[in-house]
Amino acid sequence: MVGVWTIAGSLEPFPVLSRLDLVPAPVEAALKNLDGADRVAVSPIDASLADTAEFCAHYGSPLEASANCVVVAGKRGSEIRYAACMVLATMRADVNGVIRKRLNARKASFAPMDEAVALTGMEYGGITPIGVPADWPILVSPEVAAAPELVVGSGIRASKILIPGDVLMKLPGAEVLDLARVLDQ
């Protein structure tokens, strides 16, 4: 599977376990324990093109095969609960509805950039659910879970991970939740 990616465009995918130099330490640790990691690839990219739209346009990877990971912070009183949420790039996460309720929070919002970076050990714009803190739920939209191939962040801006949705669902704490809606055109 690693060698055949229909969504790769002009990327040069490598088996991820052979190129752990392209991911940060928390992602490396998680990949070493991930059932199905042999079906995951990584590709170096120009870090200035890490944002989804620019990445897809430059590398010829379809937007509908890109999944974004957003870190959501839910607050109830003084307690803050975090979640990594995976939605297709063509969709928007329902932070104040479904995700807020799942976190049992009164208020939910995207975690501030410096907080998300500090808590994950990853670069902003490259955050991936692979390697997030173990106590975080990984909330995955059904579209992402069912995708045969996805491009996701690698934890840094200078590479991307290619992964089947079913392998993503093997991450500890991963659960399918109808948490997204299609972006208005």
TrEMBL record:
Keyword line: Aminoacyl-tRNA synthetase, Ligase
Domain YbaK/aminoacyl-tRNA synthetase-associated span(s) in chain numbering: 49-170
InterPro entries for the chain: YbaK/aa-tRNA-synt-asso_dom_sf, YbaK/aa-tRNA-synth-assoc-dom
GO terms, molecular function: aminoacyl-tRNA deacylase activity; aminoacyl-tRNA ligase activity
Gene3D superfamilies noted in UniProt: YbaK/aminoacyl-tRNA synthetase-associated domain
Taxonomic superkingdom: Bacteria
Record bears the keyword Heme: no
Any Pfam family matching the protein: tRNA_edit
Annotated protein name in UniProt: Prolyl-tRNA synthetase
